[in-house]
Specification:
The protein has helices at 23-33, 51-63, 79-82, 86-93, 121-125, 137-151, 163-172, 180-193, 203-208, 210-220, 227-232, 234-241, 244-249, 282-296; strands at residues 2-4, 10-14, 17-20, 41-45, 109-112, 129-134, 198-202. By secondary structure, the chain is of the alpha/beta class. Helix 1 crosses helix 4 (86-93). The chain binds adenosine-3'-5'-diphosphate (A3P).
Length: 307
């Protein structure tokens, strides 16, 4: 089956989820070829849930002994180049890449939007770690819609979907890497069953308290902050280095990974919780609240729509 994304590009369905036209072959190659290392770290998100932020935070946590924060590679290189998407960057270019050649020193840090059920079995069997970050569906949808409509050319004569049409499709699950609920619930359930394997985070919680979430992530990844580092303010330094304000202003456009030529600023719109109120009618919001109740049921997962 086929569908359209917000700007008219084709989406294809694979194993119950919708992918941008270029992704399925790369995802299937990743699924069949990838061999996990015990030390690998996977950052998994739906698009526009704070992936860029998480990439910067985890790169900084894992590499803080190697690079001083004042000379962090983040200051000169886009987070999406430092932590590539394993499937839609690496496997897109080469279906059988050599990932053991020293180009990816340990710990290898990769990102993906691939849903839980489609991950390579070696990730599930190995002791590697997964940090999953999600965001309330209304802010995620609004961020995604703006990202495409503002940064990508429309396909042919296609008129981008209005927010109302896009919202209908989001509710039906026909958007890149959707359906939303199945994506988040897959990782939510895994985090409950295997908390040592999957750390489940929410964008809204990171916004409320970045310091304690950074410590939680560092502990989970076995890179805990020492008492001395905490006294020296390393946690605050990383938070500041990776803040919206700092990352947004860097001259680190994307040159080596897809979509090549995308401006760094495309990943930083306003970084707020609850911005959806400026675009979504109260009626649409009520529908989403009801959908959340139906879909999330008694899973224990709840979203904070207003922060
Ligand atoms: P908005 O469009 O709501 O501003 P992704 O990185 O997954 O593509 O997500 C992008 C969203 O995360 C954008 O949301 C962006 O502004 C926000 N974001 C990026 N970096 C951030 C940071 N350091 N702190 C908070 N939000 C950030």
């Amino acid at each position: 089956p086929q569908e359209k994304d917000w700007v008219g590009s084709t989406l294809y369905q694979y194993q119950g989820f919708w992918y941008p036209f270029f992704a399925p072959k790369a995802v299937i190659a990743f699924q069949n070829h990838f061999k996990a290392h015990e030390t690998d770290i996977f950052l998994i998100t739906m698009p526009k849930s704070g992936t860029t932020w998480l990439k910067a935070l985890i790169f900084s946590i894992a590499n803080r002994k190697q690079f001083s924060l004042t000379q962090s590679p983040l200051l000169t290189t886009n987070p999406h180049e430092l932590v590539p998407f394993i499937d839609i960057n690496i496997y897109l270019k080469n279906r059988t890449p050599d990932l053991e050649n020293g180009k990816f020193p340990s710990p290898r840090i990769f990102a993906t939007h691939t849903p839980y059920g489609t991950l390579p079995s070696s990730i599930l069997k190995s002791n590697c770690r997964i940090v999953y970050l999600c965001r309330n569906p209304l802010d995620q949808f609004i961020s995604d819609w703006h990202f495409f409509v503002n940064n990508f050319p429309r396909n042919g004569d296609f008129k981008p979907f209005s927010i109302e049409e896009g919202f209908e499709r989001f509710c039906k699950g026909t958007h890149a890497f959707g359906p939303f609920w199945e994506h988040v619930l897959g990782y939510w359930k895994m985090s409950l069953e295997h908390p040592e394997k999957v750390l489940f985070l929410k964008y809204e919680d990171l916004k409320k308290d970045i310091a304690s979430n950074l410590k939680k992530v560092a502990d989970f990844l076995s890179y805990p902050f020492s008492e001395e580092e905490i006294r020296q303010g390393v946690v605050e330094e990383i938070s500041k280095l990776c803040s919206f304000e700092t990352l947004k202003t860097l001259e680190v456009n994307m040159t080596g990974v897809r979509p090549v030529g995308l401006k760094n600023s495309a990943f930083f719109r306003n970084g707020k919780v609850g911005d959806w109120v400026n675009f979504i009618s109260p009626l649409m919001a009520d529908r989403m609240k009801q959908l959340c109740e139906e879909k999330l049921g008694d899973s224990g997962l709840r979203f904070d729509l207003l922060g």
